[in-house]
Amino acid sequence: MPTITTKDGVEIFYKDWGSGQPIVFSHGWPLSSDDWDAQMMYFVTRGYRVVAHDRRGHGRSAQVADGHDMDHYADDLAAVTAHLDLKNAIHVGHSTGGGEVVHYIARHGESRVAKAAIISAVPPLMVQTTANPGGLPKKVFDDFQAQLAAGRSSFYRDIAAGPFYGYNRPGAKPSEAVIQNWWRQGMMGGAKAHYDGIVAFSQTDFTEDLKKINVPVLVMHGDDDQIVPYADSAPLSAKLLKNCTLKTYKSFPHGMPTTEAETINADLLAFFKS
User: Fold this and answer.
1) What is the pTM (predicted TM-score) of this model?
2) Are strands 11-17 and 49-53 parallel, antiparallel or unpaired?
3) Residue of 37, 53, 31, 91 lying closest to 268 (CA atoms)
4) Among 68, 95, 249, 64, which residue's Cα sits nearest to residue 164?
5) Where is the AB hydrolase-1 domain (predicted)?
6) How many CB atoms lie within 10 A of CB 50?
7) Residues pairing with 116 in the sheet
8) ∠ CA 83-87-92 to the nearest 5 degrees?
9) Residue 261: enclosing H or E segment and its boundaries?
10) Per-residue pLDDT for the chain (274 aa), expressed as one digit of tens each?
């Protein structure tokens, strides 16, 4: 399996398919690069080079005990792009991956970056603070950690079968295959990485990162996102970005790159070509 080793000795697994302008995908918590199947297949057949890695502690990357924070996530992404010498790349991040993309661009600069898209993404800040009154109470994320520690297998099953894809909504038609694939990806990773990752995605404030970004950014979010609520995420990020297009999707869930891949892929392609 293709891997790179980071400066702090962590093996990171990645996929690198096709040729052409690179699109680099950053996945959500607690998943892996496999969560981008619908996008990678779509874009590799349309003349793009598609790259995706498993975040440290996730998927096929090393299950290390430490470094599960946005600085390390951004630096690991930078190590992958440098190893592959990617230039004029488009970065696409979903959920936690959206935070990773934003922090990577702000921390490592735009010399390799052409554009970015963040989907159902955690910026600017998920947790409720005095400066972010619309955020979710810290107890929500503390409970996430407690449930993970008590038994992540059933916890992951419940997330996938419920709020992640909106399968708990009236009239929804849950896909058992999609639910099982989410659970499979989650259980491939390390419990410690996922436990720490909850703090990383909920308590990192990306406000200053967003202000530093100059490249065009597409912000995509469903207004029925039960994981990263719409009102305290996408519109606020859009206001902080210098060169932003905000696309809001009526009734789409958090996991819309999977359940609404046809729409999301077409809109990404239009943005890439614009």
Assistant:
1) 0.98
2) antiparallel
3) 91
4) 95
5) 22-254
6) 24
7) 91, 217
8) 90
9) helix 261-273
10) 899 999 999 999 999 999 999 999 999 999 999 999 999 999 999 999 999 999 999 999 999 999 999 999 999 999 999 999 999 999 999 999 999 999 999 999 999 999 999 999 999 999 999 999 999 999 999 999 999 999 999 999 999 999 999 999 999 999 999 999 999 999 999 999 999 999 999 999 999 999 999 999 999 999 999 999 999 999 999 999 999 999 999 999 999 999 999 999 999 999 999 9
- Distance CA(1)–CA(64), nearest Å, equals 18
Sequence spans of domains, the chain = 3-273
Fold of 3-273: Rossmann fold (3.40.50)
Name the token pair of 217.
Answer: 């950014």
Could you list the active site residues? Answer: 95, 225, 254
**DSSP readout, 145-184?**
HHHHHHHHHHHHHHHHHTTTTTTTSTT----HHHHHHHHH
Alpha-carbon dihedral sign for residues 7, 12, 18, 20? negative
Measured at the CA of 15, the angle between CA 13 and CA 20, to 5 degrees, comes to: 145
